[in-house]
Amino acid sequence: MHWKKPWFQFAILMLLAFIWGSSFILMKIGLKSFNSEQAAGIRMLLASLVLLPYSIKNLKHLKKKDLKSLLIAGFIGSFIPAFLFTKAQTQIDSALAGMLNSLTPVFTLIVGMLFHKTKFKWLQVLGLIMGLVGALGLITSGEDLSLGKVNSYALLIVLATIFYAININTIKSKLSHLTGVQITSLAFFFTGPAALIYLLTTDFQPVFETPNWPIHFLALATLGIVGTAIAMLLMNSLIRHASAIYASSVTYIIPVFAIGWGILDGEKITIIHLLFMGFILLGVYLINKKKQTAAK
């Protein structure tokens, strides 16, 4: 494949943006019948089952020195954020979740600077500040974001983006000798049993009493198979061949699709929301400008 070619990397970036930009509305649909923990558990279990043949095939590549990093990729990079996002979306709109998700490149640079000796320029520091100001604005402003309960749920998504940043830096610095398929399949080999054990402890009786629950399950199945398993295969491959910050900049485009789906679903998007999202995206642009300048 053409992983080293810029046009191919950009095409994968756009495909990931569409898949993940659509994931927030799929979560919202799934939550109509399932509680947030069940929705996240189903997502992770189905993703692990789809990847299981690859997991078994790649067990020969599992080395003791990689175990910690693979556990981070599985649990910090996917499992815990899945639960954080579905919990957050019980109280905030899918479009807003997509906006806050665009913080990932900001925290990717912060984690890289603090723990992986990532070099930076002061222009990137300005980008960090703008991104964080934008996030703070989204969390504390607007009709649906009054201080209090909703504020704390929005912070769950911020926490998820920090976990994504840890995962991206870990893969880039510790697992670059493995392919994207190997990283993803081995990571999900550990998360699958955890998801199954958790789901066995939950009560599905209320779900079966909900009208249209098979449709809501189908949304979660799509989320798990396409939005998690396939998307993580693509993302982990991209991280290996591009910079960590470039890969995380997929969140540039995710809000566009998330907002589009939100509008179609009747969610209220205000000028204030778009203004603060603009702060985040401008901050991400400044963070990524280092790579663009260096490439000239």
Automatic annotation (TrEMBL):
It holds the Pfam family EamA. The keyword Transmembrane applies. It comes from the Bacteria. Residues 12-139, 153-288 form the EamA domain. It is a multi-pass membrane protein. SUPFAM superfamilies: Multidrug resistance efflux transporter EmrE. One of its GO terms (cellular component) is membrane. Keywords: Membrane, Transmembrane, Transmembrane helix. The chain crosses the membrane at residues 7-27, 39-56, 68-88, 94-115, 122-140, 152-171, 183-201, 213-235, 244-264, 270-287. InterPro entries: AA-Vitamin_Transporters (IPR050638), EamA_dom (IPR000620), EmrE-like (IPR037185). It is found in: Membrane. Belongs to the EamA transporter family. This is DMT family transporter.
